[in-house]
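Sequence only, no structure available. Ideas?
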Amino acid sequence: MIDSKEDYLLLLRNLKDAGCNEETINKYFQFKKEGRQKEQYRLLSFHRAQLLDKIHTDQKMIDCLDYLIYSMKNKKI
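Reply:
I predicted one. Tokens follow.
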């Protein structure tokens, strides 16, 4: 259970700052209310994995751009 409104607001802000959508936030608080800590961990871990996948995808795009820029500078293309 959340001890105070301030604790609730801090937790809500953290979830939003972490990029959680409204559905994820609602599930998180529902699990918290029900004392289902394992599900909370699972939910946050899943969100983290999604963010990490996006980072990897973005890194691949950056690598492609770096190669293109390198090739242009060396007049390979």
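The CA atoms of residues 20 and 26 lie 10 Å apart.
Hope that gets you unstuck.
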